[in-house]
Design a protein that fits this description.
Layout (H helix, E strand, L loop, with lengths): L4 H11 L4 H12 L4 E6 L9 E3 L2 E7 L6 E3 L7 E6 L5
Parallel strand pairs: 1-5
Antiparallel strand pairs: 2-3, 3-4, 3-5
Length: about 90
């Protein structure tokens, strides 16, 4: 299932909330139950993010074949890795 441009826009809106760090993951999982969601620390992902918003890097997951992989193609995306960057001090 492809990730629509409208869905990416809605995800961006959530990730720029002032309190996104504490609420974003649960809100996005509830809003987009058809997508696989993984959260982790940004240092756990070596690939460049598809996009970055606020404290988060957004990576797209392609799980169409036998192995799950990061993709830059929203048409192949069936999930999201939400990687939180360390807060700047």
């Amino acid at each position: 299932m492809a990730l629509a441009v409208e869905e990416l826009a809605e995800i961006e809106q959530v990730l720029v909330w002032p309190d996104a760090a504490s609420l974003a993951f649960a809100a996005l999982r509830q809003k987009f139950p058809h997508l696989a969601w993984i959260r982790c620390d940004a240092s756990d992902v070596t690939e460049s993010p598809f996009r970055s918003f606020g404290d988060f890097d957004l990576h797209l997951l392609d799980k169409a074949d036998h192995c799950v992989r990061i993709t830059a193609d929203p048409a192949r995306a069936s999930g999201i890795v939400l990687a939180r960057r360390a807060a700047k001090s």
